[in-house]
């Protein structure tokens, strides 16, 4: 019996519903099949996003600030919908079905976008000799474009919330070998999606500019269809984790139960609080957020009679473990909030930085580099940073400190610093570009006599920052969340990207309103050669510096890991002394 148990994964089942056989399910091969879907999703989403601003300005004839906001709103919605995808995966569909369904929706969206860019009726007429002859896209044309983009956004939201979680499901945390493989999975996950982005910003952007956008977007649709087939081919090799119900409902049950008992005194020992969770799945009580502990106080009327016997009404009485799960999610929020500004800086790399590139000298011999392809330096920076971290920093750090590389909180901190430096570099580069534009005396010139390679430092700094912060956030949110809320926590992590893009749109609108004028001048002028984009970048650098200080305070003073995660926390270099359960003394005294 013991020999048999070693070949099964306790909390996972196979396609037929039997305990998953370790030798026949899970591991790197199924995880790789799942990664294919994410690679193609990134190929499609980024292939569209990085060059969309040039299409909106050059073909749809929209102002630069409006075009930038359309791109950031599209990406923001894509990541915000990850919460919906996470909810559906945890509550109804499961991760496998969620990935399959939303991948099909994204394939449909990219196909619709290919058609919308092909049909002449869905684009405004070409501009005449003067600016007054330029007619913006009408409501119907923009409506079709929006439908296509937001079908893609829906597909992206459902996919991203489940792909990383389903990938980690293929590894058993209780097996030391597979746990080590999971640690490397996060780095390789980001590396492979960066490869998808690299293909998007080189091959796809080139096809969009030189062959036709409809062909490039058609390739995205076909690649998503192929990814779906690859994903389905591994159906019988995947490990499936049983859904534990909607985590959102669980959270509200704890809040409602604690609110109902808000007038009760917390003079109980931790041992007297209600607990019905199996011993091996319990989470020890902690002293933080004591108000929620009232949800575990047993009171009259908390139990309801049924055919199976008395059972607690979960809207009146919750177990200590259920309460601690909610506390774990609350502890994630300060780190969640302080990482939003990074993605606001990131948004500039695919909007205003691309617009900067379109005005600069992009020749490389006889080859003209597409403006959208400048983000290749951004992606290359990510891949180089991940490779160095995976092959050099992690092994050396393990030999020196006995830990597998930087902790997740340290990686997030590094990412925040690098993005702030990236915005400072962007401000200096833009100041140089504006001085050249002023010296030429012709702000409407198609190409300024300044090399586009001046933009490389900002792309490299923010790109390297993403390599650290993305892996750090993904690791932090998955490890720091309860077992039954990992999909939701992944969605929560991805909302930092969403809100980062929305904050970018908000800042652009506010700066445009406060600094603009009737003739379209200001920091974010319709013609960036008339504007002060360097001031906007400088503003982001200042906001990033302030945010980093707040992050350090939150990481040091608010976040307290739970005792059940002590092994992981030891690897992260975080003390668990703050999460010791109450023994003997009253909860009220410790609070």
Note down, in words, how this protein is organized:
The chain contains 18 helices and 9 strands. It is mainly alpha-helical. The protein folds into 3 domains: 1-243, MFS general substrate transporter like domains (Growth Hormone, Chain: A), CATH 1.20.1250.20; 247-325, no CATH class; 331-591, MFS general substrate transporter like domains (Growth Hormone, Chain: A, Up-down Bundle). The chain has a 3-stranded antiparallel β-sheet. The chain has a two-stranded antiparallel sheet with strand order 4-5. A hairpin with a 5-residue loop joins strand 1 and strand 2 (19-21). Helix 2 packs antiparallel against helix 3, helix 2 runs antiparallel to helix 5 and helix 4 (82-118) crosses helix 7.
Radius of gyration: 26 Å
CATH topology of the largest domain: Growth Hormone, Chain: A
**CATH architecture tag of the largest domain:** Up-down Bundle
User: What string gives the helices and strands in order?
Assistant: HEEHHHHHHEHEEHHHEEEHHEHHHHH
Instruction: Assign a percent range to the helix content.
Output: 55-70%
Strand content: under 5%
Q: What is the overall pLDDT average?
A: 81
Domain count, please report it: 3
Number of helices: 18
CATH superfamily of the largest domain: MFS general substrate transporter like domains
The computed structural class is: mainly alpha
The first-to-last residue Cα distance is 46 Å
Main location: membrane
Membrane topology: Multi-pass membrane protein
InterPro entries: MFS_trans_sf, POT_fam, PTR2_symporter_CS
Organism: Juglans regia
């Amino acid at each position: 019996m013991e020999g048999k148990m070693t070949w099964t994964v306790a909390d996972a089942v196979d396609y037929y519903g039997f305990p998953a056989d370790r030798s026949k399910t899970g591991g790197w091969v199924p995880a790789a099949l799942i990664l294919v879907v994410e690679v193609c999703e990134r190929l499609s989403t980024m292939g569209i996003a990085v060059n969309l601003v040039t299409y909106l300005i050059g073909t749809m004839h929209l102002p630069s600030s409006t075009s930038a906001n359309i791109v950031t709103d599209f990406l923001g919605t894509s990541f915000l919908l990850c919460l919906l995808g996470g909810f559906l995966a945890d509550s109804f569909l499961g991760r496998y079905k969620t990935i399959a369904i939303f991948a099909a929706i994204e394939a449909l969206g990219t196909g619709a976008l290919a058609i919308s860019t092909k049909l002449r009726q869905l684009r405004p007429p070409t501009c005449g000799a003067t600016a007054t002859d330029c007619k913006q896209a009408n409501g119907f044309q923009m409506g079709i474009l929006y439908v296509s983009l937001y079908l893609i956004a829906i597909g992206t939201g459902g996919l991203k919330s489940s792909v990383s979680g389903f990938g980690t499901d293929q590894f058993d945390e209780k097996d030391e070998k597979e746990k080590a493989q999971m640690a490397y999975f996060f780095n390789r996950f980001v590396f492979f999606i960066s490869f998808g982005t690299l293909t998007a910003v080189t091959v796809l952007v080139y096809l969009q500019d030189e062959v036709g956008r409809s062909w490039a977007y058609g390739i995205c649709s076909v690649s998503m269809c192929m990814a779906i087939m690859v994903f389905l081919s591994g159906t019988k090799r995947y490990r499936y984790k049983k859904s534990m119900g909607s985590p959102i409902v669980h959270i509200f049950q704890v809040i409602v139960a604690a609110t109902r008992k808000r007038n009760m005194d917390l003079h109980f020992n931790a041992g007297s609080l209600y607990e019905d969770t199996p011993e091996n799945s319990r989470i020890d009580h902690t002293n933080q957020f004591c108000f929620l502990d009232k949800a575990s106080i047993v009171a009259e009327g908390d139990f309801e009679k049924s055919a199976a016997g008395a059972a607690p009404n979960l809207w009146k009485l919750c177990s200590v473990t259920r309460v601690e799960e909610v506390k774990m999610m609350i502890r994630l929020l300060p780190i969640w909030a302080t990482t939003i500004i990074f993605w606001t800086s990131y948004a500039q790399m695919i909007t205003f930085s691309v617009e900067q590139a379109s005005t600069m000298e992009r020749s490389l011999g006889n080859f003209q580099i597409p403006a959208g392809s400048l983000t290749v330096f951004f992606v290359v920076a990510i891949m180089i940073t991940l490779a160095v971290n995976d092959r050099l920093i992690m092994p050396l750090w393990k030999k020196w400190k006995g830990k597998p590389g930087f902790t997740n909180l340290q990686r997030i901190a590094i990412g925040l610093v690098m993005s702030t430096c990236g915005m400072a570099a962007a401000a200096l580069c833009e100041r140089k570009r504006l001085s050249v534009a002023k010296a030429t005396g012709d702000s409407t010139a198609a190409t300024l006599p300044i090399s586009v390679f001046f933009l490389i430092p900002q792309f490299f700094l923010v790109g390297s920052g993403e390599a650290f912060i993305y892996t750090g956030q993904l690791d932090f949110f998955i490890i720091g969340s309860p077992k039954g809320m990992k999909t939701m926590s992944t969605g929560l992590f991805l909302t930092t990207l969403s809100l980062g893009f929305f904050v970018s749109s908000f800042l652009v609108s506010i700066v445009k309103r406060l600094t603009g004028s009737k003739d379209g001048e200001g920091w974010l002028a319709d013609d960036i050669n008339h504007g002060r984009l360097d001031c906007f970048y400088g503003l982001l650098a200042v906001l990033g510096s302030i945010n980093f200080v707040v992050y350090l305070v939150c990481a040091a003073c608010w976040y307290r890991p739970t005792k059940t995660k002590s092994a992981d926390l030891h690897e992260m270099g975080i003390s668990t002394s703050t999460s010791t359960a109450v023994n003997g003394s009253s909860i009220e005294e410790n609070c």
